[in-house]
């Protein structure tokens, strides 16, 4: 070969003239996509390893609002009899067995609160056939059925000609709170 012979246009290793460029492009693309994915996975691992799980977390500074309301201490009759006179033990046992009377002010407050947070949505505007609180004409036939019927319809739900009442008004309130809300609405509608 002489010095004037031109160089071949492509590599002798490959039949394609653009193969080296194609290889470089594929490598650049793979590295370009793989690098951010690896960085993100390492970042997620770093963050999740440093954060405590809820089960292992400490009590928040707001624990005063989630503290227990009270404690129940139960003493057996045998332990009471050993430390007190028989008459005192009998009166203690009877007092412990008798249920505490419900505080009417607390249930009235619970009824008003439940009405203001849940019941007012329908009974404030008359939605779905709900009688508006304070409308004596709409409440009179319902009150005539008796409070037990009103409580049953409020707790278990009711489908009537004029509309419907979902169970507990769609809330998760206790039966006692629903009964208190019914009593509150009846008192406001007489």
Description of the molecule:
By secondary structure, this protein is mostly helical. Among the domains are: 72-100; 104-188, Cytochrome c-like domain (Cytochrome Bc1 Complex, Chain D, domain 2, Orthogonal Bundle), CATH 1.10.760.10. The chain has helices at residues 19-50, 77-83, 86-97, 104-123, 136-144, 147-156, 175-188; strands at 158-159, 164-165. α4 (104-123) crosses α7.
Core attributes:
190 residues, mainly alpha, Cytochrome Bc1 Complex, Chain D, domain 2, two-stranded antiparallel sheet, 7 helices, 2 strands, 2% strand, elongated
Shape: elongated
Strand pairing plus helix content: what structural class? mainly alpha
Q: Give the SSE order as H and E letters.
A: HHHHHHEEH
Mean pLDDT, all residues: 74
What is the number of strand segments? 2
Low-confidence stretches are 79-84, 87-103
Short description:
This protein has 190 residues and is an all-alpha fold.
């Amino acid at each position: 070969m002489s010095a004037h012979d031109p160089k071949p246009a492509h590599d002798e290793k490959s039949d394609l003239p653009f193969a080296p460029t194609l290889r470089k492009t594929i490598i650049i693309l793979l590295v370009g996509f793989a690098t951010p994915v690896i960085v993100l996975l390492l970042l997620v691992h770093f963050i999740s390893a440093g954060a405590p799980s809820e089960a292992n977390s400490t009590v928040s500074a707001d624990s005063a609002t989630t503290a227990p309301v009270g404690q129940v201490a139960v003493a057996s009759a045998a332990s009471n009899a050993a430390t007190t006179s028989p008459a005192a033990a009998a009166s203690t046992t009877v007092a412990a067995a008798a249920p505490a009377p419900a505080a009417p002010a607390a249930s009235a407050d619970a009824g008003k609160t439940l009405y203001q947070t849940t019941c007012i949505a329908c009974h404030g505007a008359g939605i779905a056939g709900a009688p508006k609180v304070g409308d004596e004409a709409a409440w009179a036939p319902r009150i005539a059925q008796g409070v037990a019927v009103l409580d049953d319809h409020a707790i278990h739900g009711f489908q009537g000609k004029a509309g419907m009442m979902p169970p507990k008004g769609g809330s998760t309130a206790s039966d006692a709170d629903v009964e208190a809300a019914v009593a509150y609405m009846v008192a406001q509608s007489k």
